[in-house]
Design brief:
heterodimer; A: mainly alpha; about 85% helix; B: mainly alpha; two-stranded antiparallel ribbon; about 65% helix
């Protein structure tokens, strides 16, 4: 029983680590959004505030998939559903 | 075992919701938790602010000064935000969007005051998402004909071939879930991060966590509030339709 619990805990930790690999996607996506926003500001500096708002909104939405991975990691680490 | 500290959730690292009072509700064991208390504090602050604002506006001066200025500024900014993204149908939604904006913003920022942010509890954000969901579909049925809605639900294929209907239904049902999970996960990640900093680095966490507070509580909280309201308005505007 003791071994089993510890084994599941260890596997949960590995699973949590694997789950936050989901952070790669939002990282790339937010980088692309920020890059395009930078070039847009370069072309049209007058629209800077609008561009910034749109960029932040898009980035916050793009972040969601990464947050789902983070939630799974939290569940595995702290709620421990498998034990 | 030091390595097990994160897994065991030891006494140092504390970001969980704690029960305070237990009572029985039709045979179920129900708890009054820290979320309720923090929510109550946020509500009391907002109610006090509203009462003060109402009293100031009752004897409003032609040339505003002091507190009246602040209240007018807040209302103008919120109404302007709704105007910008909803256009002609904006006046009906000043109240709803303004209210959830102020509520979510105060909930997120309350982490600065040492409270556990109420929005870091899925029981708070899911009802917010469901409110928006209800509002979307009530407005859809108010402003669009049932035939148009049916055509929209079968959208890539013609209306007499509803193969895509289940998939569109799932995408509709995913709206409140994704709205609420986005807010919840953002605020929860900030809370967990701060709890880890204070719990594991307690001896050297003196001044520099203030920078983390600025990012996790102020910046992230404000952005997520804005995103929640923006998406709410966009969904409602789509549901109302172009021609109205």
């Amino acid at each position: 029983m003791e071994f089993n619990t510890n084994f599941i805990l260890g596997c949960s930790a590995i699973g949590a680590g694997l789950a936050v690999i989901a952070g790669i996607g939002p990282g790339i996506g937010q980088g692309i959004a920020a890059g395009h926003a930078a070039s847009a500001v370069g072309r049209n500096p007058g629209a800077k505030s609008d561009i910034t708002t749109t960029m932040l909104l898009g980035q916050a939405v793009a972040e969601t998939t990464g947050l789902y991975g983070l939630l799974i990691a939290f569940l595995l680490l702290f709620v421990k559903p498998l034990i | 075992m030091r390595a097990g500290i994160l897994l065991s959730g030891s006494a140092d690292v504390d970001f969980m919701i704690h029960g305070i009072v237990k009572y029985s509700f039709f045979g179920h064991e129900v708890w009054i938790t820290t979320t309720h208390v923090c929510l109550l504090i946020v509500m009391l602050v907002l109610i006090g602010f509203s009462i003060a604002a109402g009293r100031v506006m009752k004897r409003a001066a032609e040339v505003p000064d002091g507190f009246q200025n602040v209240v007018e500024l807040i209302v103008e900014k919120l109404d302007g935000m709704v105007d910008n993204s909803m256009g002609r149908s904006a006046p009906g939604f000043y109240n709803y969007v303004g209210t959830i904006f102020i509520f979510i913003l105060f909930s997120n920022i309350s982490g600065l005051l040492g409270l556990r942010p109420p929005t870091a509890d899925y029981g708070v954000t899911l009802p917010l998402g469901l409110l928006t969901f209800t509002l979307i579909h009530v407005n859809q049925f108010r402003f669009q004909k049932p035939g148009v809605i049916w055509k929209d639900m079968c959208s890539p294929l013609p209306p007499w071939l509803p193969i895509w209907f289940p998939i569109n239904l799932i995408s509709k049902l995913a709206v409140p879930v994704s709205l609420s999970l986005r807010l919840f996960a953002n605020i929860l990640s900030g809370t967990v991060m701060m709890a880890l900093v204070y719990g594991l680095l307690g001896k050297i966490a003196t001044v520099w966590p203030a920078a983390l507070h600025v990012y996790f509580d102020l910046f992230s909280g404000a952005i997520q509030t804005y995103v929640f309201c923006m998406l709410t308005m966009t969904y409602i505007k789509n549901a109302i339709g172009e021609d109205n």
